[in-house]
Design a protein that fits this description.
Chain A: InterPro entries: Glyco_trans_2-like (IPR001173), Glycosyltransferase_2 (IPR050256), Nucleotide-diphossugar_trans (IPR029044). The structure holds 2 protein chains of 2 kinds. Chain A is of the alpha/beta class. Chain A has 8 helices and 7 strands. In chain A, helix 1 links the parallel strand 1 and strand 2. Chain B is built from 4 helices and no strands. Classes of the chains: A alpha/beta, B mainly alpha. Chains A and B meet through strand 3 and helix 3 of A and helix 4 of B.
């Protein structure tokens, strides 16, 4: 392994079994760069691409670039796709799961920072946040207000400041992998999953990151649909607070 | 008092509903598990249709004056809502099971492909 690069990977992470979980829906154009970045960030990292019912060549391209591909027979949406990855990570005994989007908006070279609190044992889930530090990310006014509102609600629930509740740039330890493998809300997995994790006494922390604009294709959420989206998410979060848990709470 | 014609018509319709549900169960096109609510609907409507005195009494309890068959509508509507709600829970469960199956298929298929390619080498 000495010849391989793992620049920026915390030293005590090198002994851990680590896997990148990359959800991708028709991302044949973006996936190559994502995989290359992951490889150059950490050569000892296993990469699993979950092709969420893709109809393009996502699977072939990802396999050709050395990733294991889990091909869902039809589109489950982001939550179902990501959960497939967590199930894989749990069943194959990984200590660390790095969730990175397949559209290229997450910069793998920042993963070292995001994983650090988890590797150091200070957090069960670390979230790359665009808003802890300012700069880098532009979006519409409606969307910014919505993001603020969500952050305010989740901060109240968590009793700790959380700024970027919809970020899918996350690193999880085995305890958190187990939770999300068993139960991850499928509709809005980031926000709802976060609230669920907090209810399960998981330690959550945010790490400042910058994210990129998409290279090819469009985001799954249009600007016009943002208001409706926000309404649905808030409703889901509210219902989630009263939802019966399928995972027995243990604090091992 | 409920007009006799309405009593006769409503009783016949209730009996037809019950007979239809029975036939669907008998021919195995409807599982008993999903038929229970339909059977309950048919039975309640049958009792309220045929038992004229009972319908009048219930109508007066709930403050319906002048036209007791209105209670039949209300009870029928209530049961339709119950059946729909029941189906929503059934669909939700099926959706969850379907997603879990899709995930398992993806996991198993990936493992299978790996084994195949490793035995070929």
């Amino acid at each position: 392994m000495s010849a391989e690069s793992h620049a920026g990977v915390p030293d005590n992470a090198l002994a851990m079994r680590r896997v990148a979980i990359v959800p991708a829906f028709n991302e044949e154009k973006n996936i190559v760069r994502v995989l290359a970045e992951l490889r150059s960030f950490d050569a000892g990292l296993d990469v699993v691409v979950i092709s969420d019912g893709s109809t393009d060549r996502t699977r072939e391209v990802a396999e050709a670039h050395g990733a294991r591909v889990l091909q869902l027979p039809f589109n489950l949406g982001i939550g179902g796709a990501v959960q497939t990855g967590f199930r894989y990570a749990w069943e194959n005994g990984y200590d660390l799961a790095l969730r990175v989007d397949g559209d290229g908006q997450h910069d793998a070279s920042q993963l070292g920072n995001v994983m650090e609190p988890v590797v150091a044992g200070r957090a069960d889930i670390a979230i790359g946040s665009r808003f802890v530090a300012t700069g880098g990310y532009r979006s519409s006014a409606v969307r910014r207000i919505g993001i603020r509102l969500l952050a305010w609600v989740v901060t109240r629930i968590a009793r700790q400041p959380l700024t970027d509740t919809t970020s899918g740039f996350q690193v999880l330890n085995r305890k958190a992998i187990r939770l999300y493998a068993a139960d991850l809300p499928h509709d809005y997995p980031e926000v709802e999953g976060l609230v669920m994790a907090i209810r399960h006494k998981m330690r959550v922390c945010e790490v400042p990151v910058t994210m990129r604009e998409r290279e090819h294709g469009r985001s799954s959420i249009g600007s016009l649909a943002s208001v409706y989206y926000m309404f649905k998410v808030l409703l889901a979060v509210f219902v989630g607070l009263f939802r019966k848990s399928v995972v027995p709470e243990d604090r091992a | 008092m409920t007009p006799l014609k309405i009593t006769i018509a409503a009783t016949i319709v209730s009996l037809l509903l019950l007979a239809g549900v029975f036939e669907l169960i008998r021919s195995r096109r409807l599982r008993e598990r999903y038929a229970l609510l339909w059977l309950a609907t048919g039975l309640v409507l049958l009792v309220l249709s045929a038992w004229r005195g009972g319908l009048n009494t219930i109508a007066s309890w709930v403050g319906v004056r002048g036209y007791p068959p209105a209670v039949l509508f209300a009870v029928g509507l209530l049961f339709v809502i119950l059946v729909l709600l029941h189906y929503s829970t059934v669909i939700s469960r099926l959706t969850d099971q379907n997603a879990t199956l899709a995930q398992r298929v993806a996991l198993i298929e990936s493992e299978l492909r790996e084994r195949r390619s490793s035995t070929r080498d």
